[in-house]
């Protein structure tokens, strides 16, 4: 049975029945239609294999970047198996500016629209023109314009109606030629007259300082999404915790940093077996080396229950947890 620990950034020692890679659509269809149960994998940075998976893991390696130009923007058609950070670097080096805030996010280009990756005040949806995918059951290929992708905070149609049914093969980006730096977030605000290169360098510096490197300490980035609550819920929390941070959310309501909620309850640095709530960023759970899937589930549930009891807010995982038969929920 192939080992999966090197194929997901949390590095739990799960196994699967078979592990296959594909570089083109035809092979992807043949492989997916030949097995009863499969899990599509990019780079495994948003996936934790909690236990052995009774199926085939299919790794997407469709690559290639094609650039063209219109009057106002640069169009980039990118293979879903390209590495996200390398793509951001490629864009910067070619003078296609704007995506620097998203530097160093692990993972593949094909997974980027799925949870609408975002960092430092920028979401990938801002640059996506359309997403190309194939329906795995029928083999039909479709191109979904960005407006139909229902992008939201760490959300899209690919997490709902299309979840598990399609393979994203290419993402079409449109990068405006007019460059507007986004420096409203955290450390970037200190930059004066920043160039795209400055933002890229600063984002990398800050991320390396704050977040554990998955090559050194297994983790899957933010374990939970930041909850979006009603104004009434936010006011009720603020009445007891006057310093609670809250940010207006596009989809109405107020977004509260999950890290703050978790921190109030003393989980920072707490360890359950081999799983630890990261001491400098409590939103990240790490594998200290000997973690088990059950310990991940237990610590995550402890955090969810404690936050729910104290604040009346239910945290949702941002990571995908994969069990014997596929995705599992907490
Ligand atoms: C240290 C660290 C920091 C992170 N920081 C951020 C951050 O700042 N912002 C942020 O938004 N995220 C962040 N993440 C999460 C992660 O980087 C993103 O979710 C990324 O897009 C996942 O890409 P992946 O290829 O590794 O996805 P995977 O984990 O391989 O897959 C994720 C999901 O997408 C599906 N999938 C993957 N590829 C395809 C495809 N081609 N077609 C259809 N379905 C597919 C999989 O089945 C799975 O359900 C971080 C993760 C880590 C480990």
Automatic annotation (TrEMBL):
The active site is at 154, 222 (proton donor), 318. Its EC number is 1.3.1.98. The keyword DNA-binding does not apply. GO terms for cellular component: cytosol. The keyword Cell cycle applies. Pathway: Cell wall biogenesis; peptidoglycan biosynthesis. Its cofactor is FAD. It is found in: Cytoplasm. GO terms for biological process: cell division; cell wall organization; peptidoglycan biosynthetic process; regulation of cell shape. Keywords: Cell cycle, Cell division, Cell shape, Cell wall biogenesis/degradation, Cytoplasm, FAD, Flavoprotein, NADP, Oxidoreductase, Peptidoglycan synthesis. It catalyses: UDP-N-acetyl-alpha-D-muramate + NADP(+) = UDP-N-acetyl-3-O-(1-carboxyvinyl)-alpha-D-glucosamine + NADPH + H(+). It comes from the Bacteria. GO terms for molecular function: FAD binding; UDP-N-acetylmuramate dehydrogenase activity. NCBIfam families: murB (TIGR00179), PRK00046.1 (NF000755). Cell wall formation. This is UDP-N-acetylenolpyruvoylglucosamine reductase. The gene is murB.
């Amino acid at each position: 049975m192939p080992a999966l620990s090197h194929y997901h950034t949390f590095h739990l020692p799960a196994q699967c029945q078979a592990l296959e890679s594909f570089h083109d659509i035809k092979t992807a269809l043949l492989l997916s239609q030949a097995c009863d149960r499969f899990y599509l994998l990019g780079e495994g940075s948003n996936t934790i294999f909690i236990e052995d998976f009774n199926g085939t893991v299919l790794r997407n390696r469709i690559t290639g970047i094609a650039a063209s130009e219109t009057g106002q923007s640069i169009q980039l058609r990118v293979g879903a198996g390209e590495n996200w950070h390398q793509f951001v670097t490629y864009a910067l080096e070619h003078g296609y500016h704007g995506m620097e805030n998203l530097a160093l996010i692990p993972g593949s280009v094909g997974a980027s629209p799925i949870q609408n990756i975002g960092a430092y005040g920028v979401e990938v949806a801002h640059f996506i023109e359309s997403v190309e995918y194939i329906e795995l059951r029928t083999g039909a290929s479709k191109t979904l314009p960005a407006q139909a992708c229902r992008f939201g905070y760490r959300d899209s149609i690919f997490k709902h109606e299309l979840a598990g049914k399609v393979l994203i093969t290419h993402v079409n980006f449109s990068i405006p030629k007019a460059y507007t730096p986004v420096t409203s977030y955290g450390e970037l605000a200190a930059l004066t007259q920043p160039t795209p290169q400055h933002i890229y360098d600063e984002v990398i510096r800050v991320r390396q300082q704050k977040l554990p490197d998955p090559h050194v300490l297994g983790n899957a980035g933010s374990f939970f999404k930041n909850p979006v609550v009603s104004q009434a819920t936010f006011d009720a929390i603020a009445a007891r915790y006057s310093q609670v941070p809250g940010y207006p959310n596009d989809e109405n309501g107020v977004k509260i940093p999950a890290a703050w909620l978790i921190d109030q309850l003393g989980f920072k640095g707490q360890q359950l077996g081999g799983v630890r709530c990261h001491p400098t960023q409590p939103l990240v759970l790490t594998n200290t080396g000997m973690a088990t899937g059950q310990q991940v589930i237990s610590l995550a549930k402890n955090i969810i229950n404690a936050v729910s009891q104290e604040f009346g807010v239910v945290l949702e995982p941002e990571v995908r947890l994969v069990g014997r038969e596929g995705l599992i929920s907490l």
